[in-house]
Each structure stands twice: as C-alpha cells, then as structure tokens.
Amino acid sequence: MVDDATAAYIVENQKCFEDLKQVASQLAGLLVLAAAGSKEAVPDHPMLGASRELFQEANDVLRRSRPTERAMRHHEHLAYAAAFIGTSLKAARGSFEIDPILIPLRAGYAELERAAGALPGFEMVSYERACCGLGAK
Amino acid sequence: MTAYSLWVMEFAAVPNYPQSGLIYGMHNQGTRKLPYCYIVIKGQGQLAMVDVGYNHKAHGEVLANTYGVRGWHPPREVLGEIGITPEDISNIFITHAHFDHMGNIEDFPNATFYLQERELSKWVWTMSLPRRFRWLMLGIDPADIMRAVDLARQGRLVCVDGDRENVLAGVDLHAAFDTHTWGSMYVTVRNDLATNSESSWVFCGDLAYTQENLRGHDPKDPEYIPIGFAMGSQFNLIMKTEEMVKSVGGDITHVVPPHEERLKDLFPSRITKAGLRITELALAEGEKSQVR
Question: If you count DSSP H runs as helices and E runs as strands, how many of each does chain A have, helices first?
Fold first, then answer.
C-alpha cells in the first residue's frame, strides 16, 4: 500500500521510467547490431535522434518531480539511471564504439531495475498479454 | 540409423493457462497446464539446445507472484537429470527473442547462439517507434539485448539470414518471418542424416503451442488453428504450419511444441524429484534412456 501522495508520484513518473527504459532499449538494440557487424549501426542512426528527444522529456519530468519520503529511494535510482543513460547517449555521438556506450548503459539499466523494485507500478518487462503463460493472471 | 537423442526438458510451468491464449478463438473455454521447456539435441559429438528459458533472477519473482508461473529450476539442475551441464552445450538455436526463450543465455558460457538477424533488426526498429506502439515490444527484455551484445563481441552470436541447412549435420534452421514474431525460426533435425529424411523432427518454438494448432479439434478432420498471439499474421502462421507438417511427412507428432503438456501421452517420459517432466523423443545409437 502507498499513500496518496506517493501514488501521485508513481503516476507522474511512470512515463519517465518507461522513456528511460526505451532509450536504454534503443541504445542496446543499436549496440547489438554494431557488435554483430550490421551496417545499420551508425552514429547518425535516425533512432538516436528519437532517443535524445525521449531522454530530454524524461529528464524534464525527473527535474519537476517532488518525491515523497516513501518514493525517495525510487527517485534516486531513477536519477542515477538518467545520468548513466545520458552518458551513454553522449558517447554515441560522433562514433559508435561499444564500450563507452555499453558500460554506462549497463549501469543505467541496473539503476532502472533497482527503481522498479523500489515502488509498485514500474515493470522492466511488459509481461501482460505477452505469450507463453503471460496473461495467466 | 538414429543420429541424435532428443529430449524435451521442462523447467517451469503455468498450472492454469487460458486456452484462448494457446488456440485462436477458444475464449471462455477454461485453462490447461502450460509447461515451459527447452530441447536438448545430443549426438554426432555435439550437444545442442533449442531455446534456453528465462532468467529467474530477472523475471522469476514477478512471474511467480503475478502470473502463476511455478517451479522454475536452473539449467544446471534440469540438464543434470540427463547427465549434462550447461557448460557442455556448444550450440543453441533461439527460435525467437522473447524473454522466456532467450532470457537465460548467461547460463551457457561455451555456447554459440543462432538467431535470425531479422528478429534483432525488427526489434530495434520497433524500439524506435513512439510509445503508443509499445504493444509491439511485449515479451522483450532489453537486458537480453544487452547480453546479446556480449555474445556478439565474443563471436558467439550468429545472425542467420533466412534458412540455413546443416548448421550441424542433419540440423537445419528455417525462417518463419512475420509469424509469432518478426524473425521467428524453427529447427529441423533429420535424424537419419538423409537429405530426404524419413525421420525428421521439427522444433517449432512458439509457432504452435499445442496439438490443436497442428490438427484442429477433430483429428479425423484436421485443420490448422493458429496460436492466440501473432506479431505477424495468422495467415503466415498457418502457412508455416503447413510447411512444418509437410517436412515431417504429415506426422504431426514429429512437430514438437515445447509448451505441449500432452507430449507425455505420445512419448516415454518421467517426472523428476523436482516435479519436472523429461520427455524422450528419440535415442541415438548406443545412448541410454533417461526416462526408463
């Protein structure tokens, strides 16, 4: 159970969490293509533009957000996640070397996982309605 | 000759899964047990698998508490029942990139993984879409994609472009694009190693969940009924089902859906102390049964 103010925080920050997760997914996707030798993984890949926009939106929400005491740990993890993912995004500018992107990305993703564990309402994988036993509520 | 021993290894299960998710159109028709399994292929000096299950650390608690997935056991324990370890596995064929099929790649440190390139590239494209398209990302764990980066860097990720014959002797990969997922594939084992095999097996991943997908509700009047979840189309699923059934000469018992509980009615099997079923489809020359 969470109090009303924390519930409001959860609602306000869900999109921020989802956006950061999506940016992390986009970077990871480009990295795997790069590591697999795909020509699609290039520094000017159009997806990176979308990633940067999403990241900016997430950061804006994060800056405005006023966490309750109950939500403080979640907010810290989200802020760390944003910092790491931001570093990863910057590293993807101009070149596409894997380690400078991947190392902070991993750290950012781990912070998102910690955030997901700190409050209800934040899921790392959308299980609902997915296949194979998911949706078996 | 029988070139490979083939086992279906259960590693977890959903006791009560809605039939409508498994068989298109079966709404309000109750539930059935849905085992989670992977396949072991052993022979010709090779140990291979089809899919690797999910990572309990990452997903287990949510799945258990929220969606009723029960009894997850690690590959070391599951494979130990037939005398092998995860380290022994040299080749793994990932039928599609859903977390419950490729989520446990970390547990197989010596394996090379085969996945359709289209599965990766279309997921990446999907990720670039606005949030309102997020349904298209169901079942995908970004952490799996990050783990795949390491595989690729270590030279252990083979991106397959379409069909590939004899990836191991007698083992073929077949693309099933725009079906259950963008870049699904199924695996054929020609167990006599013949080009026109009379002893073929198809491991279909999630292109079929149950026998009903392969023969309808009346075996005397068979029809194909697609599964309940297609990222591509039901049409493509049905046409691939025809292709798979033809490739085993029409014997649908040789098209193996890893989520089909009733394999136990067709093949010898046993239940382990952990309550997991091992189903033995074939035994290579000289191989000892693991279920009798």
Answer: 4, 0
